[in-house]
């Protein structure tokens, strides 16, 4: 059953109003609250709008391709948030996810909108019907492939003490460590390898790292379009330093801890919308 959604013009420009407070825990397969673009397939999480200007928010609300999904699974076209004059008109414009998916022949997922091919378009040689992936999905798939590649390497000493699993649905990395004597510096060498494999295909334009309550954000330096790996490393170092962690900190101290990273940018020709990932450490 559809539920009401009260949104005024001023409230629409406030992320706190756009993100409803759930009275009960969200279901495991529930869509994250945010704005979903049914034309490009991209999703802008409600949390990421905390860092957007009013002009950027207004650009989203005036784009007819964006649909806002709240934490209860209700959907409203972004433009209706601005054009509706009363709460009753807002409520009349609310649809369910299933209704919009059927109407537009799309599928809403946590990583974005899967857009089904136009049936009038000719089927390409070798078949068709492959869903259009969003930049976030391409990034997740690429990272998964890189981790699988590293894991399958023979005579790789890293595999003797480290295993990293990545859940694309929950955006969660689980870092399993069998040698507690390793340090953060040892772990950084793996991070460098992953970025080296992404080099040339990934361009980052926003990063936010949080560890033990300390949050550090980074955008491109003046005159740069994207953040360099050196800047990313410096960012993480500052976030850790704020929490009393250095390169030589023993990984044993991370047992049971986690940190989050929000990343945004471009992979290939696709945009990665600001997305939060978590890293959980487990000394095995």
Question: Quaternary arrangement of the chains shown?
Answer: single chain
- Beta strand %: 25-35%
Strand order, main sheet: write it out: 8-9-13-12-10-11
Task: Label the overall shape.
Answer: elongated
Structural class category? alpha+beta
Helix coverage percent of residues?
Answer: 25-40%
Number of helices: 9
The SSE order reads HHEEHEEHHEHEEHEEHEEHEE
User: Would you identify the regions where 5 or more consecutive residues have pLDDT less than 50?
Assistant: 6-28
Averaged pLDDT, please?
76
Radius of gyration of CA atoms, rounded to a whole number: 21 Å
Task: Characterize the largest beta sheet: strand count, sense, and whether it forms a barrel.
Answer: 6 strands, mixed
- The end-to-end distance, rounded to whole angstroms, is 46 Å
Summarize the structure.
The chain is an alpha+beta fold. Helices cover 30% and strands 27% of the residues. A hairpin with a 2-residue loop joins strand 6 (106-109) and strand 7.
Structure overview:
This protein has 284 residues and is an alpha+beta fold. Helices cover 30% and strands 27% of the residues. It has 9 helices and 13 strands. It has helices at 9-12, 15-18, 54-61, 78-83, 87-93, 97-104, 135-152, 184-198, 229-242; strands at 34-37, 43-45, 66-69, 74-77, 95-96, 106-109, 112-115, 162-167, 172-177, 202-211, 214-218, 258-267, 270-283. The strands form 3 sheets. It has a 6-stranded mixed sheet with strand order 8-9-13-12-10-11, with helices on one face. The longest helix has 18 residues, at 135-152. The termini are far apart. Residues 6-28 have low confidence and may be disordered.
